[in-house]
From TrEMBL:
InterPro entries named among the record's database cross-references: DNA_glycosylase, Endonuclease-III-like_CS2, Endonuclease3_FeS-loop_motif, Endouclease-III_FeS-bd_BS, HhH-GPD_domain, HhH_base_excis_C, HhH_motif, Nth
EC number: 4.2.99.18
UniProt gene name: nth
Lineage: Bacteria, Bacillati, Actinomycetota, Actinomycetes, Kitasatosporales
Catalytic activity: 2'-deoxyribonucleotide-(2'-deoxyribose 5'-phosphate)-2'-deoxyribonucleotide-DNA = a 3'-end 2'-deoxyribonucleotide-(2,3-dehydro-2,3-deoxyribose 5'-phosphate)-DNA + a 5'-end 5'-phospho-2'-deoxyribonucleoside-DNA + H(+)
Name the record gives this protein: Endonuclease III
GO molecular function ontology, one term from the record: class I DNA-(apurinic or apyrimidinic site) endonuclease activity
Compositional bias (Basic residues): 29-46
Species whose genome carries this gene: Streptomyces lienomycini
Length: 344
């Protein structure tokens, strides 16, 4: 009986041990399944996730050239202003902008004229030749003595060169200028009866007379339109991007297509006056410029209004915006002196 009971107990123990081991293995299997599910889920999430790119280090801000940013004691640096007009503006837009600039300048300089004193075509052509490499003011201080002693081409043609040189000495390059004015006077006396010709092809044959001088004479002595391309004119039309040409003849041709021929002479005066008074070569007075909104080069000079005002040049004719007096005498279509207009 004891053996039978003990065998029964052993059997029951074996059965319960098998059950326990089965339960443990089942738990282990379920745990493995759970771990596998978690790993699969992680892999799936990793595939779906967008990889994060590393940000490149921030670039250093561009630094303007030292010339533009150099600090001057007591003076604020000039503002950097983007050009108002793109280089690829249409032809129509360029024409409209150019003509608007001329209209604005016409209001600022209502009496713009040649700043050389003259009473007849002969005096004008001589004064214009003498104005090379010097100021109009210096020429105006010199020509009264010259014309008082040699009032006609015949008189100057027969002059003693040394005496003429002494009169012209203050204008600089006086030997070359003496040779030119005596030479052109001889040509006028011998080839044109002592009269200044009114045609471009004749004027440019005179010693010392180029297209610039010829157009000054044609426009202001004979009322025939012409564009005077001096250093001021060249500088400003390039700043305004009317043309990128550098040769005076090509500049003349390019600008001439932007305006009616009847405007050419007055246009030349407006541009030259503006170049002498406001839009200087070295430091333009941008902050005092009446056409600043139309200028692609705004910001090349002083933009502060108060500081810009100090850069304005006081020349014959006063300051911009004043009702300026006209020259001493205009000439009629025949080249004879006409009474000066009353100043407004």
């Amino acid at each position: 009986m004891k053996k039978t009971a003990s065998s029964k107990d052993a059997a029951s123990e074996k059965i319960s041990a098998k059950k326990a081991s089965g339960t443990a293995s089942a738990k282990k299997a379920s745990a493995k399944k759970a771990t596998a599910k978690k790993a699969t889920a992680k892999k799936a999430a990793a595939k779906k996730a967008v990889p994060v790119k590393r940000q490149a280090p921030a670039k250093k801000p561009a630094v303007a050239p030292k010339k533009a940013t150099a600090a001057v004691k007591g003076v604020a640096p000039a503002k950097t202003v983007a050009p108002k007009q793109p280089r690829d503006e249409s032809r129509t837009a360029l024409v409209r902008r150019a003509r608007r600039i001329d209209r604005e300048l016409a209001e600022v300089y209502p009496y713009a004229h040649p700043e050389l004193d003259f009473e007849n075509p002969f005096q004008l052509v001589v004064a214009t030749v003498l104005s090379a490499q010097t100021t109009d003011l210096r020429v105006n201080q010199t020509t009264p003595a010259l014309f008082a002693k040699y009032p006609t081409p015949e008189d100057l043609a027969a002059a003693n060169p040394e005496e003429v040189e002494e009169i012209l000495r203050p204008t600089g390059f006086f030997r070359a200028k003496t040779k030119s004015v005596i030479g052109l006077s001889k040509a006028l006396a011998e080839d044109f009866g002592g009269e200044v010709p009114g045609r471009l092809e004749d004027l440019v044959k005179l010693p010392g007379v180029g297209r610039k001088t010829a157009f000054v004479v044609l426009g202001n002595a004979f009322g025939r339109p012409g564009i005077t391309v001096d250093t001021h004119f060249q500088r400003l039309v390039r700043r305004w991007r009317w043309t990128e040409e550098t040769d005076p003849d090509k500049i003349e041709a390019a600008v001439g297509t932007l305006f009616p021929k009847s405007d050419w002479t007055d246009l030349s005066h407006h541009v030259i006056w503006h170049g002498r008074r406001i839009c200087h070569a070295r430091k333009p007075a941008c902050g005092a410029c009446p056409i600043a909104p139309l200028c692609p080069a705004y910001g090349e000079g002083e933009t502060d209004p108060e500081k810009a005002k100090k850069l304005l040049k006081y020349e014959k004719g006063g300051l911009p915006g004043q009702r300026l007096k006209p020259p001493r005498a205009y000439l009629d279509a025949g080249g004879k002196p006409a009474p000066p207009l009353a100043a407004g």
